[in-house]
């Protein structure tokens, strides 16, 4: 599956938005980068669907622009005026060329989903490879109202339980893309999250 990080050149704060090409061209998260539609159009003329990991502003600010440009089906856990398909824990959804399982992973956000296939993880913000707080295994922040470290820890455990052994591509909501032993990265993130220490102690 061919995956492009379409917000890589953003000058404003945004999540990583990923364009997965193949039989079902899909955007995972819309991001908050003005001009993301232009970047998508450099890669494809059509976009069949847009799949949201969650609806924090840095993941959905450009949602309207993407929908108006491509009219994709919009998949999300929580209600949204643009949502056309509700996703729940355990649902299957095609992204690019692969079938992914939606895994409900709240803690950082009440509506958070991660998506895992036999080879690939779109983890959103539940776990990331690197984000300035930690390299090789970090996790979403939980120090803001409505967030929960306890629930995030359980979500990471749930993700590990549902993740096949052969996953080797990790596309997370922030930080770098990772190719290799994704399970080891997620296990490292879990160990750090379980310590219950502040992620940003000076924040």
TrEMBL record:
One Gene Ontology term of the molecular function aspect: hydrolase activity
Cofactor(s) demanded: Zn(2+)
Coiled coil region boundaries: none
Pfam family, one: Lactamase_B
Protein keywords: Hydrolase, Metal-binding, Zinc
EC number(s) from the headed UniProt entry: 3.-.-.-
Domain Metallo-beta-lactamase intervals: 14-174
Stored SMART domains: Lactamase_B
InterPro entries xrefs: MBL_Glyoxalase_II, Metallo-B-lactamas, RibonucZ/Hydroxyglut_hydro
Domain of life the protein comes from: Archaea
First-level EC class: hydrolase
Alphabetical list of PANTHER family matching this protein: HYDROXYACYLGLUTATHIONE HYDROLASE GLOC
UniProt-recorded name of the protein: MBL fold metallo-hydrolase
Organism: Halomarina halobia
């Amino acid at each position: 599956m061919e995956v492009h990080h379409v917000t890589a050149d953003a000058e404003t704060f945004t999540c990583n938005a990923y364009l997965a090409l193949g039989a079902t061209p899909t955007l995972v998260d819309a991001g908050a980068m003005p001009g993301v539609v232009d970047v998508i159009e450099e890669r494809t003329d059509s976009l069949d669907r847009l799949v949201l990991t969650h609806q924090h502003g840095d993941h959905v600010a450009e949602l309207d622009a993407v929908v108006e440009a491509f009219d994709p089906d919009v998949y999300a856990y929580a209600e949204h005026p643009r949502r056309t398909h509700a996703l729940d824990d355990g649902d299957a959804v095609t992204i690019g060329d692969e079938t992914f399982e939606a895994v409900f992973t709240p803690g950082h956000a009440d509506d958070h989903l991660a998506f895992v296939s036999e080879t690939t993880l779109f983890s959103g913000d539940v776990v990331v490879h690197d984000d300035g707080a930690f390299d090789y295994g970090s996790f979403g922040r939980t120090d803001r109202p409505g967030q929960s470290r306890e629930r995030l820890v359980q979500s990471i455990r749930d993700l590990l339980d549902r993740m096949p052994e052969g996953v080797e591509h990790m596309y997370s909501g922030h930080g770098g893309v990772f190719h290799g032993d994704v399970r080891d990265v997620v296990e490292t993130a879990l160990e750090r999250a379980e310590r219950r220490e502040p992620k940003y102690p000076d924040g």
